Amino acid sequence: MAGHSKWANIKRQKAVVDAKRGKTFTQVSRAIIVAARSGVPDPALNFQLRTAIEKAKAAGIPNENIERAIAKGAGTFGGDNTSLEEIRYEGYGSGGVAILIEALTDNRNRTAADLRVAFSKNGGNLGETGCVSWMFQQKGVCVVQNVVDEEQLLEASLEADAESYETDDEIGEVFTEVANLENLSQTLKAKGFQVTDVELRWIPSNSVEVTEPDQARSLLKLIDTLEGLDDVQNVTANFDMNEQLMTVNMA
């Protein structure tokens, strides 16, 4: 299971560097709309919606915005007939690094065109469906803060039928099958753990080691550009990069 935390660290550090508050608002609001549309618009009965709302509150999104997004998803918000579609795109970055992009869009032609430009300007290529997804497996992940007793985390994870866990600087990540994510989250919280994020994540089965500064710069710029697109919800890649190289190129 090596490599999970490395990618998570990249994401966390980029989030600090980027600090794209407006982008976060758009992403989380769209996630709420889709969750409300795909299930019942009641967070007590819809785990996906409940998780999206928790992320929205953590991001500081006002309650009225959250309620408006739920209403849009439920079809009860007057005058808004926008239909958002979940689409996964795939491509390659510099050096053959595999990249998965998850998007929510009301115009797939526009989104594909924007992605194609982003790839071509940053040393990559937008590929066909299935070109890299076979290298990834989707898992449920619970991020736990302030882990002081790793043994307790292990016991709780086993009780909740988790597959594995990793810890780094008192931050734990517990991995499980997608269908078991709600059970894992509830068990960890019941055991007193501070669960700060619950998400679905694509985990690469292999990784590409990046050691050249030019390649690192190109990859991080590509990911930054992709994440900056309005329709993009999440970007995942299968590269490993040491912290020094990553920090220099994100400075």
Q: What name does the CATH topology of the largest domain carry?
A: Alpha-Beta Plaits
- Largest pleated sheet: 4 strands, antiparallel
Q: Going by CATH, what is the homologous superfamily of the largest domain?
A: YebC, transcriptional regulation domain
Question: Which percent range describes the beta-strand content?
Answer: 15-25%
The side-by-side strand order for the widest beta sheet comes to 3-1-2-9
Tally of helical runs: 9
The CATH class of the largest domain is Alpha Beta
CATH architecture of the largest domain: 2-Layer Sandwich
Give the total of domains.
3
The global form is globular
Order of helices and strands: HHHHEEHEEHEEHEEHEEH
Task: Provide an overview of this structure.
By secondary structure, this protein is of the alpha+beta class. The chain has three domains: 4-74, Integrase, N-terminal zinc-binding domain (Arc Repressor Mutant, subunit A, Orthogonal Bundle), CATH 1.10.10; 85-134 and 206-240, Alpha-Beta Plaits; 135-204, YebC, transcriptional regulation domain (Alpha-Beta Plaits). It is built from nine helices and ten strands. The longest helix is centred in the first third of the chain and has 18 residues, at 21-38. Mean pLDDT is 84; it is low at 1-5 and 16-20.
